[in-house]
Amino acid sequence: MNIKNMKHGCCSHSTYKKKILLAVLVAGAVSSIIFSCAGTIPSPTEIDIRRMKLRWPDTRKQDLDDGRIFYINRCSGCHSLHSPEHYTEQQWKKIFPGMAVRAHLLENESKSIFRYLLTFAKDSSYTMK
How far is 122 from 117, CA to CA, in rounded Å? Predict the structure, then answer.
């Protein structure tokens, strides 16, 4: 049997290979977009944690790290990510609640993402003294 004439379901071997190649290319493109965006999304530092403890005393580094990861993974599923610094706290307070509902975020995801976004908002008002 000649491999060129072999059928895979409804597709010839060469069509099947083209579909596989296309799927791999699309997956690679999507991954590179997500990971390139993640590079511009700031990671919380110990200074950020201390600064946010003034606002939310129960804040831990893991909470803000989780918020960043949730933001990257959950929000990039619907739109390109914006650096938290692109918006003020008031803008995030208006934007985020609707997005959280649309994304069907769990309560812990929503809380972590919201705190993360406000930590890095353009005008974050909680500064170390």
Answer: 10
